[in-house]
Amino acid sequence: MSDQVLVDIQDGVATLTLNRASAFNAISLDLAKALNDAAEQVAADSAVRVVVLTGAGDKAFCAGGDVPSFAVSKQADKDLAEITLYLHTAISRLAHMSKPWIAKVNGVAAGAGLSLVAAADLAIAKDTCKFTSAYTGIGLSPDGSSSWFLPRVVGVRRATELYLTNRTLNAEEALDWGLLTRVVSADNLDDEANKLAAQLASGPTLAYGKVKKLMLYTQTDSLESQMQRETRYIAECAMTEDAQAGFQAFVNKQKPEFHGR
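The structure corresponding to this sequence follows.
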């Protein structure tokens, strides 16, 4: 595995760390490839029950694309097409895997960094973080699934404002807009993210996977189609060991133990 993305797996929690702190964890081709490899690894690993994505250092979660390399390239179009191929495949793997993934935002999230935050199932950030689209500020349109996830998370009007004006949101604004699910002090980020990851890692993974699929289809399908999907998924969940454990625990007034099967 490349050192561009560090992978650490402990107690069912896989932590993926974008590891270019000196470049504010900007996404180069090598990093995009490494993220895709890491996403494939953790999505396929049955021992992994939750994924946490963060950035190295304390200044940036991800500052977007590696703009200095684009500036000197004679084929920036081909470079970006190749980078997004791997980045988008990685995001698709994370979005469609059954296990939840958390963005642990440890610093600025700009461009593709903002996209990753919007794409995550949950996002927790320290209170000093800043968020900006930045794409049109350098003459580009969005990538990294941003145009799909961001309008669903914050609404079309607000997403359009972020794209057209490159407005910067502070952490509290990002929370208010729905981009984040939790804001904590810098000193508490690791502890709070670890607690959340541990909670999800001990949960009913297969049910979480159905929730993720339902969320992907909501707002893009008809009410009747979504309800049919709900019927199919809840019936499938009912036959899992986790659901059987949940039924028995409820009846016996106990806390259920889930094993992700």
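The first strand starts at residue 5 and ends at 10.
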